Amino acid sequence: MSGLRALPFAAIVAVALGLTATTASLQDGPGFGAIQIGAWTTWPQIGNSDIDPYARASLAVDGALPLGSGEGLAFIAKTDDMGAPLDARCDYLISGSAPSARFWTLSVYDVDGKLRPNAAHRYGLTSTALLRDANGDFRIAAAREARPGNWLPLDEKSRFILILRAYQAATTAVGYAYEGMEVPSIVRNGCS
Fold first, then answer.
1. Strand spans (E) along 25-170
2. Is 2 among the domain residues?
3. By CB neighbour count within 10 A (0-12 exposed, 13-18 middle, 19+ buried), where does 51 fall?
4. What is the CATH number of the domain that holds 134?
C-alpha cells in the first residue's frame, strides 16, 4: 500500500521537474540553433515550419510572430561588445554596417520584448533614414539625451535590448552562411 501512496507524490515531482526544466530552457531564447555574431544573436530556423518544440513553446508563451524564412532575420543584442548588459544609464555607439538586406530596422525594447516608451516618441531607426559616411557605414548614438546625427533615444528604465530586423536578408538558414556576416558593433561610451 505504501508504494501506491508514493505514486502520486512521484508524479507531482516529475511534473514539477519537467515544467521547471522547460521554463529554464526557454529563458535564453526561442529554442535551439542560435547563431551568435558579436553581441547579436539570431535564430534562423524560427521562421520555418520545422522549428524545434522549445522554439514553438517560446513563441506560444510570448505571442511573438517571427519573420518567415524568406522574409528576413531578427538579431537581438542584450549586451554590448564586451559582454556587459545594455543599461540605459549609459551611452552607446552602434556603428558599422548591418547585414545585407533590402530594408532593416533597429529598435529599443525592454527585457520582456516590448517597445520602450521615451520622451522623443522615437522607437527605432530604419536603414532608409540614416545619415551615413562615404563608405556607407553608419554611427548611431543610443542615449537618454538627444545627440546630433543618428540618435536612438533611451528611457529612464535601466535594462533594455536592441532588435535589428533585416528584411529580405541575403542569407539563408544554413549556419555557414553567417560566417563573415557584418553586424553593427555596440560600444559603451560612459555611464551616469
1. 35-37, 40-42, 72-77, 90-96, 101-109, 124-126, 138-143, 150-153, 161-169
2. no
3. buried
4. 2.60.120.600
Comparing 39-53, 61-75, 127-141, the range with the smallest average pLDDT is 61-75
Tally the domains of the chain. Answer: 1
Instruction: Specify whether the CB–CB gap between 125 and 152 falls below 8 A.
Output: yes
Query: What is the domain range of residue 95?
Result: 29-191
Q: Which residues, 6 or more positions from 177, have their beta carbon under 8 angstroms from its beta carbon?
A: 171
Q: Write the pLDDT tens digit of every residue in 6-15.
A: 667 767 777 7
User: What DSSP state is assigned to residue 24?
Assistant: H
User: What does the DSSP 8-state code read for residue 32?
Assistant: S
Whether 7 is covered by a domain: the verdict is no
| 108 three-state secondary structure | strand
- The pTM is what? 0.77
158, part of any domain: yes
Alpha carbon distance 65, 87 (integer Å): 26
| Sole residue written with cell 547563431 | 35
Q: Which residues contact 160 (CB under 8 A, 6 or more apart)?
A: 86, 87, 88, 108, 109, 110, 111, 116, 154
Q: What is the pLDDT of residues 105-142, one digit of tens each?
A: 999 998 888 888 888 888 899 999 999 999 889 999 99
